[in-house]
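[SOLVED] Need 3D model of a two-part complex

Original post:
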Amino acid sequence: MADSDLPTDKRLLLLDATDNVLVACVALSPGTALTIDGEAVTLADSVGMAHKLARRDLAAGVAVIKYGAPIGSTTAAVPKGGHVHLDNMKSDYIATVNETTAAVYDGKAT
Amino acid sequence: MRGWQRKDGRKGIRNIIAVAYLVECAHHVSRQIAAGFPDRDVHVIGFPGCYPNSYAERMMIELCTHPNVGAVLLVSLGCESFNRRGLAQAIAESGRPVETLVIQQTGGTARTIAEGRQWLGETWPLLDAEEPVAMATDELIVGTICGGSDGTSGLTANPAMGRAFDLLIGEGSACIFEEAGELIGCESLMAERSARPELAAEILAVMDKTVRYYATLGYASISPGNAEGGLTTIEEKSMGAYAKSGASEIVGLLKPGDRPTTGGLYFLDVVPDGDVRFGFPNISDNAEIAELIACGAHLVLFSTGRGSVVGSAIAPVIKVCANPETYRHLADDMDVDSGRILEGRGDLDQVGREIRDLVVAVGDGAETRSEALGHREFILTYKSFEPIGPSCLPAA
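Solution:
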C-alpha cells in the first residue's frame, strides 16, 4: 500500500502494511491532533493504550485487518481516526461477551 | 544448568516433595502437612473429585513422576474412587520415595498430619543427599501461556517469548504452546507451519473441535479485562496469543500428559474430545499450566498485560509483563519488563534474548518472582480425551 510510506504519528503503531487499523502506544485523549498516513486527524474519542484506531474511513460490514490478518468485521461505519472496539466491530467466530453485553454464564448457548 | 537425574532418563531443575490429595476431603490435611515445612519446597497438588476420571488419573501420574519432583506423599480420605494404589505403584516404579496415608485408617486429621510431617522429615535427608548433575538446554522442555491479556500482550511479551522459543529450539529444547481456544482464527497459519501434511490435518481437526466446543458453551475465551485492554474479538486476541509460538516449524501435537519426543515446537491441545461434558476447557490459567507441566515442561513462560500474579506448583513460572504501566504498578511480581518496547527502551530481539537467558538461569536454580513470593497455585478438574493420532508425534 502506497500510503504506508506517508508519515504517521509515532504514538500510533502499524503492525502490518495491509492493516486498516493502527494501535495506540499510549493512552490518547479526545482532541489530540494526530497524523495518519500524512493526513491531520483530530481524535474524537478517548483511546486507551493498545486500543485500535481506524487507519482510513471504514464502511460497515468490512473486515478489520490487524497483524495482516482479519480479526473481525465492522458493525457500523468508522471514520478515519475513530476508536475501533466493541461498539463498532464483532468477531466472525464467537461473540465477545463482557459485563455490559451479557448476564452471568448459565450454561446455555447464546 | 543444574539438574536432578531421574531413573527414566529425564532431569529435573528442582527437587521438590509433592503432597498430593486424592479428593478434596483430604486437602486440608495435605495443606497442614506441607505447612510444617515453610522453608522447604513442599508443593500441594491434587484432584478434588470423588468420581473417577481417567484424564485426572493420568495427569496425577505424570505430575507425581515429573522430573522436578523428588518424592511424593499421597493423602487419601479412604472412600474416594481415585486409584491410589495404581498411582503409588507408578511413583514407586519411577524410583521415587512414596508413601500413602489414608485418613480413615490412620485415625483422623491430627494423626495423619503428624504422620505426614514425620515422613517428610525422614525423606528430606534422602533428597538432600542427591547430587545435582549437569543439564543442557537440549534436555529442557519449556511451556508458554498468556493470562490477563490486553492489547499490549500481542505487541511486546508474546512476540518476545516467541523469539525466546526460537532461540531455545535452536539450542535443542522442546517448546510447547497451547490455548486452542485462543488460537481461533489462526488455524490456517498453524496448518501452513506444520512439519507434515498429516500433522496439519490433525491441527485443523483440533481447531474445528475448538470452535464447536466454545460455540456450544456460548463463550469465546475472552474476558471483560481483555476487552478493557483493547482486545475486541477472539480472533484479535488469538493473533496476539499466536505470537508466543515464534516462527519455528510445528513438529508435533500433544494432549495433556503426552511428552515431546524430540526438540522443536509442539502444540498442546487442551480442549476435551467428544461432546461438551465437564464445562470450560480452561477454567483458569493454572489449569493449563498444570497441563503443560504434565507434558514434562520444566518451567513455564507466562505473559501478562493486565497483571496476573500466579506461579505454579512443581515448575517455576517466569512472568513477562507486556504493559509498561502494569509493570510499574506490579513490578515485584514480574520477571521481565517487555512493555518497555512500547516506550522505545529495547526491541523484541533484546527482550527475547533476555527471556532465553532467564530460562537458563532459572534452570540453574535462580528463583523466579512467583517462587520468591510463595506462589504454588494448582488446579485440576474433570476432562476427557481420546489418545493422539499416529501422525501427531515426529519420528524420534
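Edit: Chain A touches chain B at residues 13, 15, 23-26, 48-52, 64, 66-67, 69-72, 84-86, 89-99, 105, 108-110 (CB under 8 Å).
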